[in-house]
Amino acid sequence: MDWGQVKDMSRRIKKSGGPSKSAVAMTRPVGWMLGLGFLAAALSQANVQVVNRRTVMTNALEKGRYEIEDDLMARRGSIFSSDGMIMAQNQDVYRFQLFYDRLPKSPGFFAELSLATGISVDDLRRPAMLGEKKRAWKSPIVGSEAKAVRSLMRRWNADGVSLEKVLVRSYPLGWTASGIVGLVRADKAINGLEKSLDSEMGGQDGEVRGFIDRTGAFMAVEDHDLQKLVQGKDVTLTIDSILQNEASLAVRHAVESNNAESGAAVAIDPKTGDILAMANYPTFDPEGTIHDNEDMNVAYRALFEPGSTFKVMTLAKTLDMGGYGQHDRMQCGGSITVPGKTIRCSHGAHGDIDWEKAIAESCNVAASRWAQKIGTAEMRQFVTDLGLLEKPNLGLPWEMAGRHNENDPAKAMQLANNGFGQAMNATPVALASAYSSLANGGIRMNPRLLSKVGDQETPVKEAGRIFSVETSEYVRELMIATIEKDFGTGKGLRISGYQLAGKTGTAQKLQGGRMVGYVSNFVGMVPAHDPKAVILVMINDPKGGSYYGGSVAGPVFARLAKTVIRRYGIAPDSERIPRGPKLPVEISAGDGR
Amino acid sequence: MATAARNQGILLEKTDLRGHDWGLILSAIALMIVGIFSIYSIDSDRNSSFATRQLIFSAIGVVVFYICNKVKLEFLKSAAPFLYVVNLGILVATILVGKSRGITSRWIEIGPMQFQPSEVTKLILAITLAAYFAKREDKVHEIGTYLGALLHAAPILCLVLLQPHLGATLALLFLTLIGCTSAGVPGKFFPATLVAITALGGAAWFTPGLMPDYMRARVDQKVQELVFGERDPRGAGYQQHQAMLAIGSGGTTGTGFFRGEQKAGGVIPEQESDFIFSVIGEEGGFFGSVLVIVLFGIFFFFVWRRMFLAQTMMGRVVAGGLFAVLAFHTIVNLAMVLSFGPVVGLWLPFMSHGGTALWMCMGAVGFLDQCE
């Protein structure tokens, strides 16, 4: 069919006469009008979409009335524990406001709004009846409610509902992890990982230009992206939430019941260097106010003298260097004099002792002698190798490096003191890391707190070999004696079915040469064979009468040790360790006594 | 039917072998397919199932098409008085028991279904008007016949206007006028008619309370915009402004199927129904929209051709009336979406989502196919 045929047809109809003559004449213009209409539509499309596209779009933008610049808030990353518990997370919360002159008056609307928000119909309507123009609700509404409100706004064309996103960060583990996690308040990172990882977790807010539609929703125009939005990274820690919780409770109990100034407990997996728990007390409640120094986490920010616990390190070093042999013995007359000072054992002379007894009964004279064999320069190098003099690089803010005075004028006295962990100081976490080398065949692993930041995994890294395998095994056996032998300072801490290894310490706190208190220490391994965790406990300045490491810090260790066994399902020794020749060191130590 | 055509000696004008105007039917099917895909594209962003519903509507529409194709116009001519009463009946029922959407009552609920009677009205008015002229074939040139035809349509128009549905009323008015034209009413009567309509419209506009506020706002908005270049993007001009942005962002080649961002934003109200063309504008770009416009052109060429092929007064007026109402819908809808007309709630034939509208279109094709 073509135009010719149409003309033919109309001619034929005309010829046939009748009423159709004018009909055809009249309908033709209608057809042309329609065609012109279509042509106009096509031309309009060409104009808007091809020829003047930019102008059309820019005009719309430049009128300014529809255009807004919107900040796209980057989501702040969450912090997770190694077992996947949330330690810090943003909540979707919205501030809810009504502008009554732009709301439907229908009771049905308010009924639905009440259902969506959980605010009573009366509360929603009263301000309007009192003639108020707007009302803001103090307590925010949560994400799901906001979603319901938005759909309601669309259905009712309710312009007068305002939902403003508010940053609320929740810390489900509360005070038990606040010393690590830290705090963001009023959009400002205050301390902990929240502060040190602020830029990673905070992301980068984006800025876009676009339009606001009738429902108040934002519509971006791709061509005009001003600043790309980068979401904050999630952070996963090596911390185990159960151990962390238990450690915090145990430290708090120890601090409170011993009327101590502060306390800390650190648990490290010796094979990886992963910090499984790092508790401190006093600390702060992320929801409450921070008093005094509560935000100062003593576990990584305070320096303490390691005290007697360090004797095991001195012994291991002197054995490795050949200063003494494993089977040597020594006479303890109760004191030893070095230039400038006489060093005494706290419970009088030990007499003829072997190393097991020297450790188990914590002999200062023996420790000084071991140190003397090591020598000043070697001791300095040793303390450095243990990582005590550097920041542990955990990713926390304000990390501290330990101190050891290289230019001490009384070098001989310093060296003898170093033997039993004095005249030097370090943070509990650094000490825990140093001791963990004894549980890992003499190799110290770099301590690790962040296992993952965003997609970036923190590698497990060796810090270096500190002791030979043999020495570390031997010293570990001596530490078993501290708990398992009845003359040991930690004999009260046994757990039936499991051998533990440990060393107590009771360091004196000196201020201007005067003794102002004690620091009770305990370092131990759970279990003694193939340890899953090395645990260091420090209770600072207990004033409750008792101050010995075994009775003040020891119970914290015991409680944590039980938790480690439960948490990791460690089977009793009898099921794990074949009896007999597997433990030659213990046999030889036993023989020597 | 084919036999009848052969007997009348116009078989050569038929484009098919089996008695159907396949050009007409296929172009309508093509438009429906484009429509369903555009609706499906909206669904893909919204967890809605408009496309599935539209597919079901089309399936039911095939039945509607079949009935309208098989029931002879000659039979309907004899049933015209009855149909006229039915027409008035459903319009009165709509106003009395109709379902309100927003501020207008245009819907009737029948069981689980909602039904917009003004669409059926369009089909019935085309038939009753054709019957009116068919009974007065020899008096078509008289002014009395013409005025009678206007009187015939007036009650229907008034009832639709009362719903209120200005768009449908204008569509029916256009149907009536083109129906009269194709019946052979002399052209000299029309200028006076236009003056009368303008006067009536003007009176309605300036009589307070006669027009609903929303209608006034929309027309006022358009006039303001056209005369003063003013726009209120959050008020009455909102939909058009958003549509313009969508179409503009489509550019020459479009964003591609499923990729429309303005569409994805869901910022154009009623996009699946009245504003469906904005999806084509955005995702299909200039080429896509022109293709669809050309498709409409082809369809209307075939519709228009039916007026010439129709041998009876009945067929010619039905064809003219249906041509008018479909063309009116198409042009006014496109003008609305492309921002050179006011926002009038008129769907785009075959493409907008909606059962009654689709059935009206498919029924119209059924009638047109038998007009000869």
Question: How is this fold's topology laid out?
Answer:
The complex is a heterodimer of chains A (593) and B (372).
Chain A: H1 3-15, H2 20-51, H3 53-62, E1 67-72, E2 79-80, E3 86-99, H4 107-117, H5 121-129, E4 134-142, H6 143-156, E5 161-170, H7 175-181, E6 183-185, E7 188-191, H8 192-196, H9 198-202, E8 206-212, E9 218-227, E10 235-237, H10 241-257, E11 262-268, E12 275-281, H11 298-301, H12 311-321, E13 330-332, E14 335-338, E15 341-344, E16 351-353, H13 355-360, H14 364-374, H15 376-385, H16 411-419, H17 428-436, E17 443-445, E18 450-453, E19 456-457, E20 462-465, H18 469-484, E21 501-511, E22 514-526, E23 533-540, H19 549-552, H20 554-567, H21 573-576, H22 584-592
Parallel strand pairs in A: 2-10
Antiparallel strand pairs in A: 1-8, 2-3, 3-4, 3-5, 6-7, 8-9, 10-18, 11-12, 11-23, 13-16, 14-15, 17-20, 18-19, 21-22, 22-23
Helix pairs in contact in A: 4-6, 10-20, 12-14, 12-18, 14-16
Chain B: H1 2-8, H2 22-46, H3 50-70, H4 73-78, H5 80-97, E1 99-101, E2 104-110, E3 113-115, H6 117-134, H7 143-162, H8 166-183, H9 189-206, H10 213-228, H11 238-250, H12 261-265, H13 276-309, H14 313-337, H15 355-370
Antiparallel strand pairs in B: 1-2, 2-3
